[in-house]
Write a structure and sequence with these properties.
The chain contains three helices and no strands. Helix 2 packs antiparallel against helix 3. It has a domain of about 45 residues. The chain is mainly alpha-helical and about 90 residues long. The chain is elongated, with a radius of gyration of 21 Å. The longest helix has about 45 residues. It comes from Streptomyces fragilis. InterPro entries: DUF3311. This is DUF3311 domain-containing protein. Keywords: Membrane, Transmembrane, Transmembrane helix.
Length: about 90
């Protein structure tokens, strides 16, 4: 195999860090029960414990969408750079 086929496969980039944080945040927020295991403040009569969790359903959806868009953009950029390096490498040989 050529060196370019596996190059950058496990590279940590700022975009990938943001993707990981977007996907990790809902888990941390929901698993840290002590932070939201209380009644006050209530929202339209709903205790904090319940509306906090329901808010995270919407927040998780938004964060997952952001992560997906960033991932697609990262994959397209990697494919474009791979194609340009393949074309440049083939033209100079």
């Amino acid at each position: 195999m050529s060196e370019t086929s596996g190059a950058g496969r496990g590279t940590v980039t700022p975009t990938r860090v943001v993707i990981a944080l977007c996907l990790l945040a809902p888990f941390v927020a929901m698993l840290w029960v002590g932070s939201y295991a209380k009644v006050e403040p209530t929202f339209i009569g709903i205790p904090f414990f319940y509306w906090y969790q329901m808010a995270w359903v919407l927040i998780s959806t938004a964060l997952t969408m952001v992560a997906y868009v960033l991932w697609r953009r990262d994959q397209r950029a990697r494919a474009a750079s791979r194609n340009s390096s393949t074309q440049d490498g083939g033209a100079s040989s």
